[in-house]
């Protein structure tokens, strides 16, 4: 029983003390409770508030509960077949006259403790993060769907491609009307030139497993490289894929997209692809000159100059 005293328990305790001091009839008039109600709780009261707590109203038996013969049949079958699955166990019990549903069998077996104890779950220990040591060593790339409320034309669809250098946090953003391997390949060529103009040679790009980047999870084109992968090979860039369904492995670009949502998409509207590209370029310059904690409270542009 819980040690905490609820408001109802405190109320009943006050009623019991008043009835003990002035009588049941007077307590009934003061508290507007029937005499039978007071006598009911008075029989339970032992001087403590814990005795005035509501007890479980769950019935002790049920007309359709398992009989002792059925319970013995289940226990015997489980003892003889400890590794048998639930459905197969239920099927064998039916052959011996058992008429209950599988759900009922599961509940009674759980109540009787007939399931094997669950094994101890292995504690997840993440691998240590591989820190980058120079600009361009690895660049994270991802795609963001522009929120519909930011677009004035209801028929228009826009996408933001984002690239961020893991060492300097220097970002490159580009606007596209579609999310495809063609757009991804075009973005890869643009980011390669953009970083090269700043003296950074991109050696590796890291992406998720989307179809705009890879055919890794395609049923029919698994061995066919995408246009993005071909372009990466032509530019001499290594393409690294993160673990499936693990966006935290692309955490830097995911975090930067959250900042884009807060600083750009929450307060801007776009009218066309060209308008979106111009606004995105201004936002990209502003973000690259914004101080950050990882580079020692320097902006990515200031930090990258020290290594280029």
Automatic annotation (TrEMBL):
InterPro entries: Homeodomain-like_sf, Integrase_cat-core, RNaseH-like_sf, RNaseH_sf. Pfam families: rve. It comes from the Bacteria. It comes from Yanshouia hominis. This is Transposase. Residues 131-308 form the Integrase catalytic domain.
């Amino acid at each position: 029983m819980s040690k905490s005293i609820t408001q109802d328990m405190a109320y009943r305790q006050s009623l019991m003390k008043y009835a003990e001091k002035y009588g049941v009839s007077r307590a009934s008039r003061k508290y507007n409770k029937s005499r039978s109600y007071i006598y009911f709780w008075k029989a339970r009261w032992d001087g403590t508030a814990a005795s005035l707590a509501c007890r479980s109203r769950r019935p002790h038996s049920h007309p359709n509960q398992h009989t002792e013969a059925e319970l013995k049949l289940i226990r015997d079958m489980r003892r003889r077949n400890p590794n048998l699955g639930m459905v197969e166990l239920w099927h064998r019990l039916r052959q011996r006259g058992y008429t209950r549903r599988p759900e009922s069998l599961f509940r009674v077996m759980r109540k009787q403790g007939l399931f094997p104890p669950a094994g101890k779950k292995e504690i997840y220990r993440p691998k240590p993060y591989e820190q980058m040591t120079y600009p361009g060593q690895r660049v994270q790339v991802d795609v963001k769907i522009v929120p519909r409320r930011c677009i004035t034309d209801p028929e228009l669809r826009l996408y933001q491609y984002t690239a961020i250098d893991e060492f300097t946090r220097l970002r490159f953003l580009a606007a596209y009307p579609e999310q495809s391997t063609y757009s991804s390949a075009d973005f890869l060529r643009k980011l390669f030139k953009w970083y090269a103009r700043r003296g950074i040679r991109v050696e590796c790009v890291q992406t998720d497993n989307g179809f705009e980047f890879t055919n890794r999870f395609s049923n029919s084109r698994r061995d066919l490289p995408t246009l993005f992968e071909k372009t990466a090979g032509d530019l001499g860039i290594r393409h690294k894929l993160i673990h499936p369904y693990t966006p935290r492995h692309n955490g830097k670009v995911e975090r930067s997209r959250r900042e884009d949502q807060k600083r750009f998409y929450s307060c801007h509207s776009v009218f066309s692809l060209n308008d979106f590209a111009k606004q995105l370029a201004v936002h990209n310059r502003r973000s690259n000159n914004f101080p950050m904690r990882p580079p020692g409270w320097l902006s990515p542009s200031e930090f990258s100059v020290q290594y280029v």
